Structures are given as structure tokens and as C-alpha cells.
Amino acid sequence: MSKIRVSAPGKVILHGEHSVVYDKLAVAASLGLRTRLEYCEEGAGLRVEFGDLGLTQCYNFKDVHQLLSTQIPLTQPTAYYNLTHPELLDHDKITEIVEKFVDLNRHEPKQRQALVSFFYLFFAIVGSTDSNLSDGFKLAVRSDLTVGAGTGSSASFAVAIAAFLLHFVKVKKFKSKNLYKSLDLNVDNLQNFDTTELDLVSKWAFQSERIIHGTPSGVDNTICTFGGLVSFRKGTRPQKITLSSKITLILIDTNTPRDTKTLVGKVATKRAKYRPIIDAILDAMDHTTISALDYFQKMETSDVSGETYDALGELADLNQNLLRCLGVSHPKLDQACEILATFGLHCKLTGAGGGGCAICVVPPSVKGVEKAITELKLNGFGAVLTDLGGCGVRVD
Ligand SMILES: Nc1ncnc2c1ncn2[C@@H]1O[C@H](COP(=O)(O)OP(=O)(O)OP(=O)(O)O)[C@@H](O)[C@H]1O
Ligand SMILES: C[C@@](O)(CCO)CC(=O)[O-]
């Protein structure tokens, strides 16, 4: 085994960004755009290449072995832990250890977040096993997604890493170290991930999202792991929606960078100051998503009528206005909505907002979509047509 390839999709949130952090419903779907990770054995030591961040970094095995031999900080006795129990990690202490290892001063913020996320997962997963890394290897990550634009680049990255590490432990047949609980992985299935393994990948990716987002809801890691179209509410199992016909949308990129953690923090600050007002907005968002879900569920069984698309358009407008009230829109997002309105189309931001991407569901009956796309591009936007619901994480 000299190569492993794993990929995970990006995502769009159709309804429920921000409100999902406060236990409201979200509906999200995977995209055809993916993050790809390639592992190959070469050289000496560990070489990390995060091409989208312009980062290549080499670590010698002496330092890597020292990290992996450090006891993993846990909230329970060591005998309860193995890599199937990420919920037992002492998150802050592990982050501290990894931040020291990564030498934060040498990197810019995006690179830091990515390296800390990667080594967090590497330390807590591989460090719990009897791994005896002796052959040098390279890990290269590349994504079709714009980094930091609301299409789940961080979750897609985290899911690809978590899935790779789980697969790596299986392929290498590593066991738990003696001090940890014994490990019973299904090493006969190396083609893909079963549902239990997907649950585990999603849980590990959630830990990584805690580093990048602070207080993630879990919707992004869920959809980037399982793929398809799902409804999601924190603390409950995600429900899959199987459409009888495809949904096409325009994915609009404002080319305005922003940072999810800052935007989630902005909403939290506003809520602390104006609790009843913000809670009323979040409740309204919940109702918007519940109504939209109703229409998506109709699409499971019957042919989609013009009325369904009209309602989905109105709900998109409603939610965009509610998101604007939360303070997470941006003049470029508002401009995209205005341009598309002149073509009779409805648009809303997707993900954390503040720039990044917007989406516009395209009813099959609408003519002139190409003209709308041209107009967006003339105004400096990126715009592509894409279908919802690419497959989840997989071994390629
Ligand atoms: N392809 C990638 N390679 C390395 N790191 C990545 C990659 N994609 C994302 N990241 C990490 O994720 C961070 C971006 O996360 P952020 O949550 O702000 O954006 P997003 O996931 O695209 O947006 P949203 O959460 O709203 O969907 C980057 O700063 C980087 O650390
Ligand atoms: C803004 C947010 O709701 C979606 C980011 O894609 C944050 C989250 O759910 O963790």
C-alpha cells in the first residue's frame, strides 16, 4: 500500500444557517465540488501539502514520534478511550499540545487553523494506537471549493482528513496502545465506510470544526460526511430526503472573504444584547426552514409543480431578509439578490454569510438563466450552475 485517496464533498445550506447553532432546523445538501486528499509513501518524515493555502511543511519523525507518544488528555480514565470515543477528549488541552507542536508563529491564520485541525486529529487518532511510523509519507490536500466562502470548505477538509486517518489505521491494522481500550475495527471492508464508520468520521470532523468555528452546530460535518440532501437539528439524527427529480441551483461567489467563527460570534454578541428580538428572528427562521422542508419532502414523491418552486422562492427571500436582520448579509450579497430579482429569480446567502457565497434555486420552467449568469459575471461575481446532492465521503 503506497497510496490512499479519499475525497469529501462541499455543501450548501438551503435554509437554517446561524439559527441551526441555536437548535433550529436546517436543510442542507452536498455539492459536486470536492476536497481530495492523497497519501503516498515517499521521503523521510511527514510532509504536509495544503495546496489551496500555499503551504508545504515537513516534520521529522523524531518530533512526530514525540507527539504521538504524549498521553492524550481525556475527561475520563484512559481505559475508557480508544479512537471510537472522540467525546472523551479534553479538547482545550489537546489543542494546547498541538498548537505548541505546530509552531504557530511561522504561519498565517488560515494555515494555522488547518495545521492545528490536522494535527489534532492525527494526534488523537493515530496517537491512541500502537502505530510505528517508519516509512516517510506525504499528505496532499486540494479542493474544488473556494476556501472560506460558505460552501463548507473547512468541514469538507476535516471530513477528508478524519476519513483518511480512520482508513489508514484500518489498512495498517494498528491496535490500541495498551493503556487505552482495545479496538475492534472492521478491517475486512477497505473499499468504503459503513454507517458506523461514517458516524465516527463525522464526530471526528466535528472536533476539527470546533477549532475552526468555535461552536459549530454539526450540520456541515454531517452533510460533508453523508452527502445527499438532509434535514438536520442539533442533537437528533439527520433525516435524508430522496428527491424524485434533480434540483439545480446557481452558486454565486461574491469573491468577498470572511470567516465563519467571526460571523457566528457576531450573532452571539447581538443575541446577548437583544435576546428577545434575536430569539424571535431565530424562531422565524425555524418556521421558514420547516415550511421549506415540507416542499422538499413533496419533491420526494410527486412531480414538482410551479407552485412549489414559487413557494421555495418566497421562502428564500424571507430567510435572506431574516439573515440580513441578524447582520450577516453583505452589500455584495444584497447586490446578487437584486440582480437575480430582475430575472424573476430568488437568492439567499449560504453558510455564514458576511460575503462568501449565495444560492439561487432554478425552477425548470425559468428561461434566461444563462443571461442571469452573464449579468452576475459582468458585475464581478463568480456564478456556476450545479446540481444538489453529490455523494458523501469515499475512498477513491
Ligand atoms: N482545502 C483546504 N486546505 C486546507 N485548509 C482548508 C481547506 N479548506 C478549508 N480549510 C481550512 O478551513 C478554514 C475556512 O473555514 P471557514 O469555516 O471560515 O470557511 P467555510 O468552511 O468555507 O465556510 P462555512 O463554514 O460558512 O461553510 C481555512 O482558514 C482553513 O484553515
Ligand atoms: C453559520 C453556520 O450555521 C453554518 C456555517 O456553514 C455555523 C454552524 O452551523 O456551525
From TrEMBL:
Keywords: ATP-binding, Cytoplasm, Kinase, Lipid biosynthesis, Lipid metabolism, Magnesium, Membrane, Metal-binding, Nucleotide-binding, Steroid biosynthesis, Steroid metabolism, Sterol biosynthesis, Sterol metabolism, Transferase, Transmembrane, Transmembrane helix. The keyword Cell cycle does not apply. Its EC number is 2.7.1.36. Gene3D superfamilies: 3.30.230.10, GHMP kinase, C-terminal domain (3.30.70.890). Residues 309-365 form the GHMP kinase C-terminal domain. The gene is AUGUSTUS-3.0.2_15408. The lineage of its organism: Eukaryota, Metazoa, Ecdysozoa, Arthropoda, Hexapoda. It is found in: Cytoplasm. This is Mevalonate kinase. NCBIfam families: mevalon_kin (TIGR00549). Its main location: cytoplasm. It catalyses: (R)-mevalonate + ATP = (R)-5-phosphomevalonate + ADP + H(+). PANTHER family: MEVALONATE KINASE (PTHR43290:SF2). It comes from Tribolium castaneum. It is an enzyme of class 2 (transferase). One of its GO terms (cellular component) is cytosol.
